[in-house]
């Protein structure tokens, strides 16, 4: 103790256990950072995996199965419409906390994850920074004190310590930023993985097809990114200033005394009250901004996607109007936020920077002035006269130096306190923005979780398609009609409330029916009590006038739409050899970005395709069967990557889709007018090839010429009653099995009759077309005669 007291104050500072604490914390942090916690995920073979893991995906995280996701559904009930919608005011109350907790469980599934380690390290550095700030404030005071008391040695030691402290301070600051960014990225990755697994679920959910949220790309990209950034930031923004406030106040309390500390708290309270009163609803503003951003983004995306069609119509000016209007709506809103912010920031700046600093000066000055006054009055009383005589000049200097030290340290602490207060107020604003974004992401997840499940089809012998009393109805949640149009001024801010209400209605199961959500008094029934059985070799053609429900039948057969209540649907299953039960080729063929090879094998990934010479030769054969034998050479090989949607002609795209069908060789193929742009000779060749591969065809077409490739005909009457006929086509090649329901020889006659009528109509249309030419020629000859 004696030795310690003899040491120079700066040496005492180093030996003091409380001063050693920052150095120890720093050392511990360095050790944590040196460990392999911060190495990239993929490089760690022993990465901790949550109990829900199955197979690992490209994100380095396990893919969540549908059953695992279903277990999660109870955490995402549909919120009341008023709070769920992005446009409602998301407060910071209990609903927000519930939503935030549900999302945090996704991004922080357990304590044994990388995210938890990052969070711990982040917290450690935040604490360290506060401790270092206090050490800096104390050292600052000592340096000035040594300066005032002209202690050169002490001053130089203090300066040395100042530079030593600079090292951990700089390191701590950069680590806080680094860890915050890494944490944000990890949060984003976890949330994105979850949304991908949920949204892109394959059959029987098809959430990506059925989700009724407009501008979903904005939710999944920009909103998730912003949410991850804000949540990772808000932790530091809240924790650091709160800790600062706590520690700085406790430090200040020592020199301010009880009265000063009380005044400090009164100051905090008044400030919080003022700022709360003037803080606008930043959460709601952020949510509306995200929605408007999404609408504008969707508009730009649509123009990119449909550019050719727009160009054919010369619709550039119209599209510019639509986009400009969407952009103006966004900008108007952002501008209004700026205006609201200006007023708020004025108040905030004044209160935090000036009012707090003035209060701080006052708080420091009071004890100093009071002490001096008391000393002055003691001297005036006479008892100080002798003391004054006794006091040497150096003692007086040391009193001044001590006061200066206290003043400088307290002033620095007070300035840091004001800064912490300011950051806490900013954090309040950030927290409101987090609430807005949390509301949006929660809406996305609860919508995805609460889509009514599609009833699973029965499995027969695996090779049969059977329908009994199936009503084909337009689903009650209309996708398109619900989406606000970009160019419509009535793009209501309330659309998401409406969405939640709709989802709530349709997700209430009717005890009498599994699939009541899809049929009922409000739905349109296109086809009633559809009944037939198809077995391999029974090639079915579905016909009927436009809009009668042919594609709707295909959607039910493919499992995209639920069949109506009290019906039976038996679908073929995947074969033991890997052949899919059903494969659909739509009219507008789909071509993802990727190589030519990936176009043929889609949706199989290229990585799983054994691209041996033999396999590629076989694929070449499939292209040849689709009359595309020249394509590989023309495009520069199988690995050529192009925007195939633009590169290939309409007919080529449809033929490539047929090559895709040959590659997958399903048991049943639903061909929805998928050869409408192909010449009839090539079309016939492809149909024959498909049949030779053992594919049973279900063709939707209005072309009578295709009838000859089928054995059965389903005609939708389109008279508004939902009636239909199913019959065997006369002179059709013998099927291996017989049709059910209306399949008998008596009913072959109407099919034959229909085919004849359709062919006659086509012939007459061709003649009418020709007669227009003749009429024109007659007119020309008449005019020539007149001229002569
Ligand atoms: N998602 C949907 N939402 C609302 N209505 C729909 C939806 N899909 C189809 N419909 C309606 O169902 C009816 C049948 O549509 P579908 O596409 O099955 O007709 P189609 O017989 O295939 O016609 P086309 O020969 O013109 O292709 C149409 O009136 C259509 O407006």
From TrEMBL:
Keyword Transmembrane helix attached: yes
Organism: Rhizopogon vesiculosus
PANTHER family given in the database record: ATP-BINDING CASSETTE SUB-FAMILY D MEMBER 1, ATP-BINDING CASSETTE, SUB-FAMILY D MEMBER
Ranges for domain ABC transporter: 512-743
Superkingdom, taxonomy of origin: Eukaryota
Family label: Belongs to the ABC transporter superfamily. ABCD family. Peroxisomal fatty acyl CoA transporter (TC 3.A.1.203) subfamily.
Protein name as it appears in the record: ABC transporter domain-containing protein
GO molecular-function term, one example from the UniProt record: long-chain fatty acid transmembrane transporter activity
One GO BP: long-chain fatty acid import into peroxisome
Cellular component aspect of the GO annotation: peroxisomal membrane
SMART domains: AAA (SM00382)
UniProtKB keywords: ATP-binding, Membrane, Nucleotide-binding, Transmembrane, Transmembrane helix, Transport
């Amino acid at each position: 103790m004696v030795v310690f007291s003899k040491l120079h104050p700066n040496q005492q500072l180093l030996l003091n256990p409380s001063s050693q604490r920052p150095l120890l914390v720093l050392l511990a942090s360095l050790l944590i950072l040196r460990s392999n916690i911060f190495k990239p995920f993929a490089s760690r073979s022993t990465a901790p995996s949550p109990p829900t893991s199955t197979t690992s995906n490209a994100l380095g995280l396990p893919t969540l199965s549908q059953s695992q996701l279903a277990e999660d559904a109870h955490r995402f009930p549909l919120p009341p419409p008023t709070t769920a919608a992005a446009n409602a005011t998301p407060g910071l109350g209990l609903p927000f906390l519930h939503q935030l907790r549900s999302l945090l469980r996704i991004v922080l599934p357990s304590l044994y994850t990388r995210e938890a380690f990052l969070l711990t390290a982040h917290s450690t550095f935040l604490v360290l920074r506060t401790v270092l700030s206090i050490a800096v404030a104390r050292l600052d005071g000592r340096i000035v004190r040594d300066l005032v008391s002209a202690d050169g040695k002490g001053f130089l030691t203090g300066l040395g310590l100042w530079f030593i402290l600079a090292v951990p301070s700089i390191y701590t600051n950069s680590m806080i930023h680094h860890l915050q960014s890494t944490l944000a990225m990890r949060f984003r990755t976890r949330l994105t993985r979850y949304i991908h697994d949920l949204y892109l679920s394959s059959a029987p959910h098809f959430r990506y097809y059925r989700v009724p949220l407009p501008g979903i790309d904005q939710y999944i990209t920009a909103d998730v990114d912003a949410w991850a950034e804000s949540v990772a930031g808000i932790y530091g923004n809240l924790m650091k200033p709160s800790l600062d406030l706590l520690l700085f106040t406790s430090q200040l309390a020592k020199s301010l005394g009880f009265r000063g500390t009380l005044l400090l708290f009164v100051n905090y309270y008044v400030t919080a009250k003022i700022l709360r009163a003037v803080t606008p609803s930043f959460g709601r503003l952020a949510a509306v901004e995200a929605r408007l951003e999404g609408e504008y983004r969707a508009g730009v995306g649509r123009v990119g996607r449909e550019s050719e069609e727009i160009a054919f119509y010369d619709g550039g000016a119209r599209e510019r109007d639509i986009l400009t209007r969407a952009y103006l709506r966004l900008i108007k809103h952002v501008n209004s936020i700026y205006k609201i912010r200006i007023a708020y920031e004025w108040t905030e700046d004044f209160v935090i920077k000036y009012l707090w600093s003035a209060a701080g000066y006052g708080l420091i000055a009071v004890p100093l002035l009071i002490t001096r006054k008391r000393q002055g009055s003691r001297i005036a009383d006479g008892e100080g006269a002798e003391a004054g005589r006794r006091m040497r000049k150096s003692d007086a200097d040391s009193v001044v130096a001590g006061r200066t030290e206290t003043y400088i340290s307290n002033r620095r602490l007070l300035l840091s306190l004001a800064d912490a207060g300011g950051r806490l107020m900013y954090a309040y604003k950030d927290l409101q923005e987090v609430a807005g974004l949390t509301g949006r992401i929660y809406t996305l997840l609860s919508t995805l979780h609460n889509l009514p499940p599609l009833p699973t089809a029965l499995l027969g012998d695996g090779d049969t398609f059977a329908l009994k009393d199936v009503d084909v109805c337009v689903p009650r949640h209309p996708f398109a009609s619900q989406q606000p149009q970009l160019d419509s001024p009535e793009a209501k801010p309330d659309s998401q409330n409406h969405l939640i209400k709709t989802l709530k209605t349709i997700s209430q199961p009717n005890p009498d029916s599994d699939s009541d959500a899809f049929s009922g008094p409000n739905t349109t029934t296109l086809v009633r009590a559809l009944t037939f059985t198809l077995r391999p070799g029974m090639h079915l053609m579905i016909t009927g006038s436009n809009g009668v429900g042919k594609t709707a039948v295909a959607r039910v057969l493919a499992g995209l739409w639920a069949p109506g209540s009290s019906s039976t649907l038996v679908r073929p299953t995947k074969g033991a050899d890997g052949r899919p039960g059903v494969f659909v080729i739509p009219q507008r063929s789909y071509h993802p970005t990727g190589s030519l090879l990936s176009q043929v094998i889609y949706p199989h990934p290229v990585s799983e395709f054994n691209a041996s010479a033999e396999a590629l030769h076989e694929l070449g054969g499939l292209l040849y069967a689709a009359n595309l034998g020249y394509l590989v050479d023309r495009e520069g090989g199988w690995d050529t990557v192009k925007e195939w949607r633009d590169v290939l002609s309409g007919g080529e795209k449809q033929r490539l889709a047929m090559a895709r069908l040959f590659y997958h060789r399903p048991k049943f193929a639903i061909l929805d007018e998928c050869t409408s742009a192909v010449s009839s000779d090539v079309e016939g060749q492809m149909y024959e090839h498909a049949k030779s591969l053992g594919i049973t065809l279900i063709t939707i077409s209005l072309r009578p010429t295709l009838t000859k490739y089928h054995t059965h005909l389903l005609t939708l009457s389109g008279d508004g009653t939902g009636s239909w006929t199913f019959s065997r086509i006369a002179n059709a090649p013998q099927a291996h099995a017989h049709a059910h329901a209306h399949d008998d020889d008596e009913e072959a006659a109407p099919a034959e009759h229909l085919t004849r009528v359709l062919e006659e109509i086509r012939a007459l249309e061709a003649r009418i077309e020709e007669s227009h030419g003749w009429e024109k020629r007659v007119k020309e000859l008449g005019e020539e005669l007149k001229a002569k």
